[in-house]
């Protein structure tokens, strides 16, 4: 835990010349951060549940790495290790007893992961970029409702590329490597939407941060959102299903921009609360 706290202070402080280290090919940060994060993937879930300070330190480190654009050590993880890391953070965020500040740190990391869905879609829609079918870490084929099935309602990767904010070549390369690691795990995106929408619908903290997890996936591939809508509606009694669908349509109709989606999240919450009273 001490090592993670020190690493976080180094990342968030202004006293470590990371740019110079990368320029001179000094890999001390890269190697140490990689080994710290990799060790997290080797721990059992109960470690994070039973040790609150350790859990907070781990998520603060991941948040700092992604927010400060120093997440490139994650590219050295194996595909299953990166998925395990994401699953650990998801599990912490799903826990209703997770403190609000730790929840925000976790959702910040998951928001970064959700943003990679665009790169993953490019890979899966480009045959020469697709992960090898012989990859031992790849999961079995998924049902069509959970995968990147082409759809007319989903803009092409090329059309989305023009809307993305400028990135350095180094950042693009790191994102591309992470996307390749996540590409075999197409069930991840549906799960991230469900977890984040669960927080939006039923909890009073981190609503905006949860929206930052949902929207990139909805924007990149709407079928994931529509599949969530069907599952969410089906989880309610039949007498409430029409009202629930109408409440969700508030968000469905706010897909034109991230700002519009965020602003309508609170309208959705109010509509849902009226239905649940």
Automatic annotation (TrEMBL):
Its main location: cytoplasm. Keywords: Cytoplasm, Nucleus, Protein transport, Transport. GO terms for molecular function: nuclear export signal receptor activity. The keyword Cytoplasm applies. Residues 147-169 are annotated as: Disordered. Residues 147-159 have a biased composition (Low complexity). One of its GO terms (biological process) is protein export from nucleus. GO terms for cellular component: cytoplasm; nuclear pore. It is found in: Cytoplasm; Nucleus. Belongs to the exportin family. This is Uncharacterized protein. It comes from Trypanosoma cruzi Dm28c. The lineage of its organism: Eukaryota, Discoba, Euglenozoa, Kinetoplastea, Metakinetoplastina.
């Amino acid at each position: 835990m001490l090592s993670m706290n020190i690493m976080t202070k180094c990342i968030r402080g202004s006293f470590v010349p990371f740019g110079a280290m990368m320029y001179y090919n000094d890999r001390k940060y890269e190697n140490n951060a990689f080994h710290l994060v990799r060790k997290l993937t080797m721990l059992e879930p109960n470690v994070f549940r039973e040790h609150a300070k350790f859990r907070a330190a781990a998520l603060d480190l991941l948040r700092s790495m992604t927010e400060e654009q120093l997440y490139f050590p994650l590219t050295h993880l194996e595909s299953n290790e990166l998925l395990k890391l994401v699953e650990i953070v998801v599990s912490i965020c799903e826990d209703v007893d997770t403190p609000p500040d730790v929840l925000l740190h976790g959702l910040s990391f998951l928001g970064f992961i959700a943003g990679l869905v665009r790169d993953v879609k490019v890979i899966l829609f480009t045959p020469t970029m697709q992960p090898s079918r012989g990859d031992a870490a790849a999961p079995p084929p998924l049902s069509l409702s959970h995968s990147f099935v082409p759809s007319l309602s989903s803009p092409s990767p090329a059309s989305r590329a023009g809307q993305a904010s400028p990135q350095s070549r180094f950042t693009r390369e790191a994102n591309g490597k992470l996307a390749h690691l996540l590409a075999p795990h197409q069930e991840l995106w549906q799960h991230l939407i469900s977890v984040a929408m669960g927080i939006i619908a039923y909890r009073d903290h981190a609503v905006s941060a949860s929206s930052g997890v949902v929207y990139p996936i909805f924007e990149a591939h709407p079928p994931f959102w529509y599949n969530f809508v069907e599952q969410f509606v089906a989880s309610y009694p039949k007498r409430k299903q029409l009202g629930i669908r109408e409440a969700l349509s508030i968000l469905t109709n706010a897909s034109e921009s991230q700002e519009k989606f965020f602003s309508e999240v609170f309208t959705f919450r109010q509509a849902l609360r009226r239905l649940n009273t």
